[in-house]
Structure prediction request, 222 residues.
Amino acid sequence: MEAILTTSLLEDEGAARDWIEASFAPTAVQWQLLDRFAELLVAENGQQNLIAASTVPTLWVRHMADSAQLLALDPEREGLWIDLGSGPGLPGLVVAILSARPMLLVESRKRRCDFLRAVAADLGLSHVEVAEAPLERIATRPAATISARAFAPLDKLIALSTRFSTESTRWLLPKGRNAVKELALLPDAWQRMFHVEQSRTDAESRILVGRGQIGAKQRGKR
Prediction:
């Protein structure tokens, strides 16, 4: 079922920063780290295509708050967080700045991993680990939270990552305008794990929020 939009969209950079302040009450140091990450992201974007150039003027809405809203959807806020296809560290590095929980960034592209490691070192994020390999080659470990901002079609994403899940794992999967359609194509057992949340940064985008583990016997059944 579609979530009902009960809060205003974050329509400008000031609103995005105000929402982060109201939701997480970052310390002065955390604000400095968020600003530094934004600076490093924009600078590196001139060297490799990390984010669309058209989104740089609205970086705080389109990327910073867009990432932070996933942490707001994970009320327990503890345990290992695995960010699949982390790319430039969205949402993983934003979450790692706002939360001390261990963060595993899974990314197969070397240049992006180099950037992720450099940023984690620059910001002193000792609780961040970068796994430079396809997900299939990552050793299985239980995740409290699994996120994937732009990783793979939903059915493939779940099939590849279910071995990291437990009965209490939280799934946070931004799926843009096609979220409901992708969810409807899943086997019934998978669909029942999820509900749909409205994105705070895009009126047409949705986030699939789930909890639980998909066992091998559930796969492919409707």
Remarks:
- The two ends are 18 Å apart (CA to CA).
- Residues 1-6 have pLDDT under 50 and may be disordered.
